[in-house]
């Protein structure tokens, strides 16, 4: 048995932004329409090494492969592989040794797609919470969908805030270490266990949260959900361990107010209404991106 | 990044019966003592291709690797791979492209260990329910632990029963297509959704069930659990989707009567009492066997 292992250089060549955006968009819409299989993820914890490992599986109906993804974070270093399996025979087809990059890109693409779809078209300023990889990627990928003029960065470590501002400035953005103040669009990317005060979000017409992926985490103050149009990438997951679930448990919103992200992408919304998108990451997006990458590498 | 993929020939050389028995025994005892991490498995169904895929993850505390196993069965053909991940760094260490064989062997080893531990020492006749790979393996691996003289085979297809009897006869066993009648020890290996009548098991002092791995399956009549000493490989899994759970839901036994298999292997039991062992397969056994195989291949 020869099982090909494809490394990051090959994967990077295949996974263009167009490919990733298209695959993620299709997967989110398919998920909203019930055309995906996504069992509840598995989590293993390794507290002695500040590590955890998330295993996600997913399948988009009609796709040639289903995907099992193993994504670990140890001492803040992401790693992982995706295994593609033939959905008609059950035979392993390939391993994408992507070092966690496909997850980073599909997360960036999903966040950017929904931030763009829910934020008024004239907003050209975004604030990011957090200074790690996703803070950078969310802005970079959003810029592929709409022009941005200014970025505000909020983080707990001033050095990291200045460094990220320098990266954005080098890319031609007006980058400011200003926190959230006055931003019309906020993208929250931290794995925080406590939220900023609701006051900090008062100018935001749209908020996207992508950092809350486990019970006990929560980066958005529950008040931002009140009276907002709410979209979730997976109703059950967001209720279980997303910021949406925190808001429901605190009584700020009912547990059935959310729309599926895919329905928002497919049908659009009234973008002048205040909105919050909660993303916890779905295996169907992994499956769609990995399938598209393997398909491109094989043809 | 180079991720080694080890194929079945290498794996087969490393995975001796001694290695598999020792790893499975240690894993079952560790599991009984709470020294393992085993998240609930994931299942994906592919009804159009008579397929399903089970994803199991497991870790035995202190081991160098944790393991994510992808095991598929499409049109009765088993396949699969195991991914080993460094438990101190989260980095992928190797893929064992074992085509499902390590699962088959650890299932055979677990079944044989517990059948041997719970069956009176003088019993040298075993009946197997089912005619597929595990029916053969359960007998072959039990013979590595105790001498067997006679095997009775029960199956729904007479041709398959005769073929399996011929295989056993070629191995020097007195093999009979007799069904269960009179057998003191029964090993049930089918994925049946309906059970044989309890009457068929009336001579059995010990029954091991290894075939019930999903809700809706059940190969043992619930009556066999009444007043029996019951052992389970994982209390929660067996309650959720094992034969034990079927017996509990039908009211034949209380949901807390079971002992962990690992405790039986560690401490022994009174083998003159009627007993039933329910095995649903645990990720910790996969982890232990795969770790031991990789360790042997690297040293």
TrEMBL record, chains A, B:
One of its GO terms (cellular component) is cytoplasm. It comes from the Bacteria. This is Ornithine cyclodeaminase family protein. It comes from Kribbella turkmenica.
